[in-house]
Amino acid sequence: MIYVYHLVVCLFLILFQTTLSTVCGPTCLYDLLVPLVVYLGVYRLPREALPVLILAGLAMDGISGGVFGVHLSAYLWLYVGVRWAIQFLHAGNAILLPMLVTIAVAFKSIVVAFSAVVVASAPWPVEAVFPVVSGQILWGALTGPLLMVALVRGQKVVDQTTGNFRAEKNSLGTP
Amino acid sequence: MFSKRMILIAVVILLVAVNVILLTITGKHAQAPSGLGRGALAVVSPFQKELTSFFQSVKNIWNQYFYLVSAAEENRRLKKELGRRSKQLNDCVETGLANQRLRQMLGFEPDIQRPMIAARVVGRDPSPWAKTVIVDKGTADGVNQSAPVVIPEGIVGVVVEASAHYAKVLLLIDPNSAVDALVQSTRARGIVKGGGEGVCIFDYVLRKHSVSVGDTVVSSGLDGIFPKGLRVGRVSEIVRQNAGIFQKVSVTPYVDFEILEEVFVISGPVSGNPSGAS
Fold first, then answer.
1. Residues B196, A125: C-beta atoms closer than 8 Å
2. Is the ipTM beyond the 0.90 threshold?
3. What residue of A is the nearest CA neighbor of B169?
4. CA of A173 to nearest chain B CA: how many angstroms apart?
């Protein structure tokens, strides 16, 4: 059930940023999957998180015209970084968690910008980096933590539904 | 000899280096390796199509029933414009017929008309660093890799990847795009390259060639992808430096890439440059 939840959320976020969010313009268009990666890093086990991360990375790289593999790499490194960070940080802290999301958005923005400016065969001008990356970080800082909270709430609903279903099934099974 | 921490740091550095090398290799190719891009298109694009259709119908309802305040004024303006264009069209038809007769007399080969496939934009690139769109026509509809994509206003881009029912189009404004082009009035030649944010760079235009702000730039047909005479954009800025043999020309595309909804993909084989045509 939780895998289905993760995959549905992942698909919804990809669809949102490729079909609906064009009204915002490129500067605020940060990768909405980053809060999902942070959520997976903080709250889920690697066996639950890694398949979703790999599928999300491949899907994003497949539909994007940028350097292939940059999204997948960024998600995996981000996940490793979040897992490392929560060894020292209290994950439920109201200040640290938004900060973690903002840092993650900044990391992702910088990695993708680096790939476009340095690694790509036809690189972008370096002057274009600052406005785009700063806009993404700002929007990531403002909306990323909210998205993260929504993901946690969604997970709780899924867990509760699954729990109720199991309890119902068990009660029907016992005479 | 080495502490556990040092080994861990070394492993991380090594992994980062390998990662950067792999990205550098994939960065040299426009296509995703082993059909992974086509697989992602096949999985994600049907959902994009449904969602786009839904929002398009909502938008249409708004435009057709609620947003009619300026329709009468627009109607009057368009009727006036139509009269002017009808006269212009008549002149063009006359010129076309004269051109056809003269070409026949000189023994020029007739231009080959290539079929056009209408497609709808169903998705955009998730990254601001890549200017691509996904359209709802693929190889099953006759859309192949390297097919040019246009709209009546001008060139949109080129198909870089195609699955059975969807295709990825690299837009003209992407830095990876390039179109062999010439200034319509003076025939000054160069290469139009994507400049990223809504503008293009007209490279390799010789300083001795006359170019003015406002000139129309059209495709030359020499790149083997775009047919000759398609509108690319309007010259918006010219910088003639003291040194160097080229001038720096900026071109603003005629196509507004932000509101792109429907496009035409030109299919079929690339027509050769008609003999004698320049």
1. yes
2. no
3. A65
4. 39
Alpha helices in B62-128 (DSSP H): 71-106
Mark yes or no for CB contact B126/A61 under 8 Å. no
**Which residues have C-beta within 8 Å of that of residue A139, sequence separation ≥ 6?**
A24, A27, A28, A30
Distance CA B131, CA B124 (A): 8
Residues of A in contact with B163 (CB under 8 A): none
Q: Which of A19, A63, A70 sits opposite B23 (nearest CB)?
A: A70
Picking from A14, A17, A119, the nearest residue to B24 by CB comes out as A119
In angstroms, the CA B135 to CA B144 distance is: 12
Q: Does domain B114-269 have CATH number 3.30.365.10?
A: no
Do A132 and B128 lie within an 8 Å CB cutoff?
yes
Comparing alpha-carbon positions, the chain B residue that sits nearest to A13 is B126
Domain-wise residue ranges, chain B: 4-64, 69-106, 114-269
Distance (Å, whole) CA A81 – CA A136: 20
The residue of chain B nearest to residue A23, with distances taken between CA atoms, is B258
In this structure, what DSSP letter does residue B201 have? E
Residue given tokens 């919804």 in the structure block:
A12
B102 in A contact zone (CB under 8 Å)? no
Yes or no: say if A84 and B65 are a contact pair by the CB < 8 Å rule.
no
On chain B, the residues whose CB falls within 8 A of the CB of A128 are 196-197
Give me the tens of pLDDT residue by residue for chain B, a chain 278 residues long.
Answer: 678 888 888 888 888 888 888 888 877 765 666 677 778 888 888 888 888 888 888 877 777 776 676 777 888 889 989 988 988 998 899 998 888 888 888 877 766 677 889 999 998 888 888 889 999 999 999 898 889 999 988 999 999 988 889 999 999 999 889 999 999 888 899 999 988 777 899 999 998 888 889 999 999 988 888 988 899 999 998 888 777 788 889 999 999 888 888 899 998 765 544 333 33
Amino acid in position A48:
E
Nearest to B51 among A19, A58, A120 (CB): A19
Structure tokens at B13: 């550095």
* CB nearest to A19's CB, from B26, B52, B127: B52
Give the global pTM: 0.82
- DSSP label at residue B166: -
DSSP H or E segment with residue B191: strand B189-194
